[in-house]
Specification:
Keywords: Amino-acid biosynthesis, Hydrolase, Magnesium, Metal-binding, Serine biosynthesis. Helix content is 42%, strand content 24%. It is built from 13 helices and eleven strands.
């Protein structure tokens, strides 16, 4: 299989690209956009050297199958918090309760893989008991923002007939609104219990944890009649690793170190539009 080394950055320097091409043993390189370059027939044995060099230069890099095009894929599965959107919704809800530092610290440890996700979610949600449901709407309207390049990636998926599935350890209040706003095909998340207009501090039903994310990807892939290599998955936390492992291409987006170490591709510099530029 021939590999293409894809280099991406808001600022690419032609001399630095030539040096990377030589380091990768590439036969040729092109620059289809101002922000991306493709180095053909790259040697995968150069990965460590390329990684060190790109890190120093502030470039994203990925070794991809040269024959792959975006249209080869049929399903893209994405995490929500800190992936499709810039915030961790539960941390911002907690801010309405005046306890963001405590909750954010638990969130961070959970995303690094230091805490059991389900137990940590229940612990964090319990701290939200008594908060008016209107606080969720306030977070959505005032704090939730799409990650850079999200709309471009979604447009590329629609153009090529790729279904987009949001699978989140967050909450259905946000995933359903995003599904409607962005025209997503599928959305799955946890449901907060609300009684008399206030959060009870409990989650209704099964927790969408790492295993559930993996299962939902497999179920949707089989339902659509797709092979594993026709699926892209992206996320940022340890609870995304099983899901990323089920995809043909697993992408760590501005992710925790444990995720970057295991994913096929890490995007740290570019926005989500960098995903579609991986493929010719």
């Amino acid at each position: 299989m021939s590999l293409t080394l894809v280099i991406q950055s808001p600022r690419l320097d032609s001399k630095e690209l030539q040096e990377l091409a030589a380091l990768a043993g590439a036969s040729s390189f092109s620059q289809p956009t101002l922000e991306s370059a493709r180095l053909e027939q790259a040697d995968p044995a150069s990965r460590d050297a390329i990684s060190a060099c790109c890190q120093a230069l502030g470039y994203d890099f990925a070794f991809v199958d040269s024959s792959l095009q975006l249209a080869n894929f049929g399903l893209l599965v994405s995490d929500m918090d800190s992936t499709l959107i810039t915030i961790e919704c539960i941390d911002e809800i907690a801010d309405m309760q005046g306890i963001k530092p405590q909750v954010a610290a638990i969130t961070e440890r959970s995303m690094r893989g230091e805490l059991d996700f389900s137990a940590s979610l229940r612990e964090r949600v319990s701290l939200l008991a008594g908060l008016p449901e209107s606080a969720l709407e306030k977070v959505y309207k005032e704090r939730l923002q799409l990650s850079p390049g999200a709309e471009q990636l979604l447009a590329a998926c629609k153009q090529h007939g790729i279904r987009f599935m949001l699978v989140s350890g967050g909450f259905t209040f946000f995933t359903e609104k995003l599904k409607q706003q962005l025209g997503l095909d599928y959305a799955y998340a946890n449901q907060l219990e609300v009684v008399d207009g206030k959060l009870t501090g409990r989650v209704v039903g099964e927790i969408v944890d790492a295993a559930a994310k993996q299962r939902l990807l497999i179920e949707k892939r089989e339902q659509l009649g797709l092979r594993p290599d026709q699926v892209i998955a992206m996320g940022d936390g340890a609870n995304d690793l099983l899901m990323l492992g089920e995809a043909g291409v697993g992408i760590a987006y501005r992710a925790k170190p444990v995720v970057q170490a295991q994913a096929d591709v890490a995007i740290n510099v570019m926005g989500l539009d960098g995903v579609s530029r991986l493929f010719a």
